[in-house]
Design a protein that fits this description.
Elements: E1 4-8, H1 12-24, E2 28-33, H2 36-46, E3 50-54, H3 63-72, E4 77-81, H4 86-93, E5 99-102, H5 107-142, H6 149-160, E6 168-175, E7 181-191, E8 194-198, H7 200-206, H8 211-220, E9 228-230, H9 244-252, E10 256-261, E11 271-278, H10 286-303, H11 326-331, H12 339-351, E12 358-361, H13 368-377, E13 386-390, H14 399-404, E14 405-406, E15 418-419, H15 421-424, E16 429-433, H16 440-452, E17 454-455, E18 464-465, E19 469-474, H17 478-483, H18 489-495, E20 498-501, H19 512-526, E21 533-534, H20 536-544, H21 550-564, E22 569-570, H22 595-609, H23 620-624, H24 628-637
Parallel strand pairs: 1-2, 1-3, 3-4, 4-5, 12-19, 12-20, 13-16, 16-19, 21-22
Antiparallel strand pairs: 6-7, 6-11, 7-8, 9-10, 10-11, 14-15, 17-18
The structure holds adenosine-5'-triphosphate.
Adenosine-5'-triphosphate (ATP) binds next to helix 13 and helix 21.
InterPro entries: AAA+_ATPase, AAA_lid_NorR, CheY-like_superfamily, Homeodomain-like_sf, HTH_Fis, P-loop_NTPase, Sig_transdc_resp-reg_receiver, Sigma_54_int
Keywords: ATP-binding, DNA-binding, Nucleotide-binding, Phosphoprotein, Transcription, Transcription regulation
Length: about 650
C-alpha cells in the first residue's frame, strides 16, 4: 500500500519531529511544504496518500484553503493545529477532515489518527464508488422512462438527493436561438422523497410578483458559467431589481447554492442547468461540486429527452407511473421534516443498500432503534430477521452465551445447546443497542465477528461462519469511552464506518408540532376518542420545553394527556419542571419573512453599520449600491425613520 505522507507545516522543528515519528513507524515522508504554494507543487508531483496539514502557514493561504483542493481530489488529510478560535475551527470542520490533532500531541495520538483516517478513507472510498456507480446507472435509466418533463425532473432530484443535500432545486434551460429566453421549473423538498413542483407562475404568486416583474426577472437571469457553490446566500437589494437567486433565498430561506450547468449538446444550442439550494448555510463543499462534475455526462443523458417549450419542441404527454414509494413507506412513522431529520433520512437511504456496519449515536429516545429498523427494511436483507440486542440489559455473565450461543454441557447449567443471537440473525441484521455498555472481553469477540465473519459458541469445537450486518447504537460518547479505556479503539473504528447522529428534539423544535399531532392521532385512535389536537398555549409550552427524554418523553406525555383530556382539545400538559428555553420569536419554518420585511431589516442593518449615514463614501447608499435618493424613498416606503436610533 502507498504510505507516502506529505507534511504541510511551516515550523521547521515541528515538521522535522513529525518526519522522525512517521519514519520510525514505517511511513515514507514524500515531502515537507511550508506554504500552500509548495504543497500544491508536491501534491502534483508526489501524489501523497495522505496529508498532515497545519492550518496557519507561511504565505497568504491557509491550510483550510489547501484542504478544499485535497477534498476535491479525494486525498485524505488530518489537521494539526494549536488551539484555534471557534471561527477557524468551524471553517476547518466544514472541509470535512479525516482527523484533527491538537498540538502538542503524543506520538501514539498521531499514529492512531493516521490509522483511523486510513481505514475510513479506504472504506468510505469503496462504498462511495459503489454508490456513485449506482447513481450513474439510475440517471442513465431515467432516459428511457416514459415520463414527462416534470416527472423526469422529479426522478432526477430523487436520485441526486442523497449525494447533493438540497431543499430546493431550479432546473432551467436557456436557449441562445430563442433570444436568450429561459424556461425553468422549481422543485421544493417538503419531506423525505416529497417534492412540490413550482412553475414560474406559481413562483410569481408565492414571491408576490406581477407578471411583468416575472418576465423581467427571467429575462435578466443567465445560466451559470461553471460548476460552483456559494454558502453565503442572503437577500440583498440589487441595482437592477431582485435576482431570481436572491428571491429564492428570500422567499424560501435558502442559505447556500450549488450551480451545475450541463455541457451544451450542440454549439449555440440550449444549455440546461441545475441550481441546488439548501436551508443550511454550509451545505455545499468541494466534494459536491466535484461529484457534480463527475456525473454531468449521466445527467446530460437523463435530461436529453426533456422537452422545454423554449426550445420549441412540444411537451410530451406524460404517461407516468409514480416512483416506488417503498422508502416513503419505511419512513412513514418517523415524523418530522426539519433539515436535521431529512439529513438522517438521506444517510439512511444511502447506507441501507450497502452492507456496511452502521453506528447510530444520539441521546436516549431520539429514535435510534427506529432508524435501525429503517436501515434493515430498506436493505436487501429485509426479508430476513432483524435481531435486537440491548447490550446494557444483559447480565455480564450471560452476554456471551446470549450473543454467541453455547454447546450442551459447556458450563454448569447448560443443559441444552443454545443458538446465540448472531446465529439467529443469520443472513439478516443484528442491532446492538447500547454498544457502549458492552464489556471489554465481549468486545474482543465482537471484533472477531466483524473481521472474520465467524462466531465461536461457548464450548464449541470450531468457529461457525455467519453472514450478518451489524448496526450498533449508543447514547454514550464513544470517543470518550475509547480515551478512558472502556471501549476498544479497533472495534470503534470498525463500527464507525458509517456514523449517523440523531439530533436531540431540542435541536429540531420545528418538528414538535408534527410529532404532537401524530401522537395525539395515534393515542386518541387507540382508545376511540375524538381529539383534534392541543391548544395553542399548550403547544407553545411544549416547544419551549427542553425535552431531556426526547421523543420518547414527548410520546409518553401525549399518551397520558390523551387519556386525561376532558374535551376535544388538550388544554394542558403538565411538564416536569426544567427551565423553559426562550422560544425564538419565530422560527423559519413557522413563518417565513416577507421580501418587504427582509428588505427593511437589511436596510436597517446597513444603516446601523453606517451609524445612520446615508450619503458619502461610507454611507448606506454607497454600500447598498443605490443612489441616496432611491434609498430615501425606499426608507419612506418601508417605514424606516431617518432618526432611527442606532
Ligand atoms: N421521528 C419520530 N417520529 C415518531 N416517533 C418517533 C420518532 N423518533 C422516535 N420515535 C418514537 O420514540 C420512541 C423512542 O424511540 P427509540 O426507541 O427508537 O429511541 P432510541 O434512541 O433507540 O432510545 P434509547 O437510546 O433509549 O434506546 C419510540 O416509541 C419511537 O417509535
Amino acid at each position: 500500500m502507498n504510505q507516502h505522507i506529505l507534511i504541510v507545516e511551516d515550523q521547521f522543528v515541528e515538521a522535522n519531529h513529525l518526519r522522525i515519528m512517521l519514519q520510525r513507524a514505517g511511513y515514507t515522508v514524500c515531502g515537507v511544504a511550508r506554504s500552500v504554494e509548495q504543497a500544491e507543487e508536491l501534491l502534483e508531483k508526489e501524489k501523497p496518500y495522505l496529508v498532515l496539514l497545519d492550518i496557519f502557514l507561511a504565505g497568504n493561504k491557509t491550510g483550510i484553503d489547501f484542504a478544499v483542493q485535497l477534498r476535491e481530489q479525494n486525498v485524505p488529510f488530518i489537521y494539526l493545529s494549536a488551539n484555534s478560535n471557534e471561527e477557524v475551527l468551524n471553517a476547518a470542520k466544514a472541509t470535512h477532515p479525516n482527523g484533527f490533532l491538537v498540538k502538542p500531541f503524543r506520538e501514539n495520538d498521531l499514529l492512531v489518527a493516521l490509522q483511523i483516517a486510513q481505514y475510513h478513507h479506504e472504506n468510505g472510498l469503496e462504498s462511495q464508488l459503489r454508490k456513485e456507480t449506482q447513481l450513474q446507472t439510475q440517471l442513465a435509466n431515467i432516459t428511457t422512462e416514459p415520463a414527462g418533463r416534470e416527472q423526469k425532473l422529479l426522478m432526477i432530484a430523487q436520485v441526486l438527493q442523497p449525494f447533493i443535500p438540497f431543499d430546493f432545486v431550479t432546473a432551467a434551460v436557456t436557449c441562445a436561438g430563442a433570444e436568450g429566453k429561459t424556461d425553468l421549473l422549481h422543485l421544493r423538498r417538503v419531506g423525505f422523497n416529497e417534492y412540490q413542483t413550482i412553475t414560474p407562475e406559481g413562483f410569481a404568486i408565492i414571491a408576490n410578483l406581477k407578471p411583468h416583474e416575472l418576465t423581467a426577472l427571467q429575462a435578466r437571469h443567465t445560466a451559470p458559467a461553471d460548476v460552483a457553490f456559494r454558502n453565503d446566500l442572503y437577500p440583498r437589494p440589487m441595482p437592477g431589481g431582485p435576482t431570481l437567486r436572491g428571491l429564492i433565498a428570500d422567499v424560501f430561506s435558502m442559505k447556500s447554492v450549488l450551480d451545475l450547468p450541463l455541457p451544451a449538446v450542440s454549439k449555440g444550442g440550449p444549455v440546461l442547468y441545475f441550481s441546488f439550494y439548501s436551508r443550511r448555510p454550509d451545505a455545499f463543499a468541494a466534494q459536491h461540486a466535484a461529484l457534480g462534475r463527475r456525473v454531468r455526462p449521466f445527467l446530460l443523458l437523463a435530461t436529453q429527452s426533456l422537452h422545454w417549450p423554449v426550445v420549441n419542441v412540444p411537451t410530451e404527454k406524460p404517461a407516468y407511473a409514480p416512483p416506488s414509494t417503498s422508502q416513503n413507506a419505511v419512513f412513514e412513522g418517523i415524523i418530522g421534516n426539519s433539515p436535521q431529520l431529512t439529513e438522517v433520512f438521506d444517510l439512511v437511504s444511502q447506507v441501507a443498500p450497502a452492507d456496511t456496519s452502521v453506528l447510530i449515536t444520539g441521546e436516549s429516545g431520539t429514535g435510534k432503534e427506529r432508524v435501525a429498523e429503517s436501515i434493515h427494511a430498506l436493505s436487501a436483507r429485509s426479508g430476513k430477521p432483524l435481531v435486537k440486542v440491548n447490550c446494557a440489559a444483559l447480565p455480564t455473565n450471560l452476554i456471551e452465551s446470549e450473543l454467541f450461543g453455547h454447546e450442551r454441557g459447556a458450563f454448569t447449567g447448560a443443559f441444552e445447546r443454545r443458538t446465540g443471537r448472531f446465529e439467529q440473525a443469520s443472513n439478516g441484521t443484528i442491532f446492538l443497542d447500547e454498544i457502549g455498555d458492552m464489556p471489554l472481553e465481549t468486545q474482543v469477540k465482537l471484533l472477531r465477528v466483524l473481521q472474520q465473519k465467524e462466531i465461536e459458541r461457548i464450548g464449541g469445537k470450531a468457529p461457525v461462519k455467519v453472514n450478518i450486518r451489524i448496526i450498533a447504537a449508543t447514547n454514550r460518547n464513544l470517543e470518550k469511552e475509547v480515551a478512558e479505556g472502556r471501549f476498544r479503539l479497533d472495534l470503534y473504528y470498525r463500527l464507525n464506518v458509517f456514523p449517523i447522529h440523531l439530533p436531540s428534539l431540542a435541536e429540531r423544535r420545528e418538528d414538535i408540532p408534527f410529532l404532537v399531532d401524530h401522537f395525539v392521532r395515534v393515542y386518541a385512535g387507540k382508545i376511540g376518542r375524538k381529539i383534534s389536537g392541543v391548544s395553542d398555549k399548550t403547544l407553545k409550552s411544549l416547544m419551549a420545553y427542553d425535552w431531556p427524554g426526547n421523543i420518547r418523553e414527548l410520546e409518553n406525555l401525549i399518551e397520558r394527556s390523551v387519556l386525561l383530556a376532558k374535551g376535544h382539545v388538550i388544554e394542558q400538559i403538565p411538564l416536569p419542571v426544567n427551565k423553559p428555553k426562550e422560544l425564538p420569536e419565530k422560527t423559519e419554518e413557522v413563518r417565513l419573512k416577507t421580501i418587504f420585511e427582509n428588505e427593511r431589516d437589511y436596510i436597517i442593518q446597513v444603516l446601523q453599520k453606517c451609524n445612520g449615514r446615508i450619503r458619502g463614501e461610507d454611507g448606506a447608499a454607497a454600500i447598498l449600491n443605490i443612489p441616496p435618493t432611491t434609498l430615501g424613498s425606499k426608507m419612506k416606503k418601508l417605514g424606516i425613520k431617518r432618526n432611527y436610533t442606532f
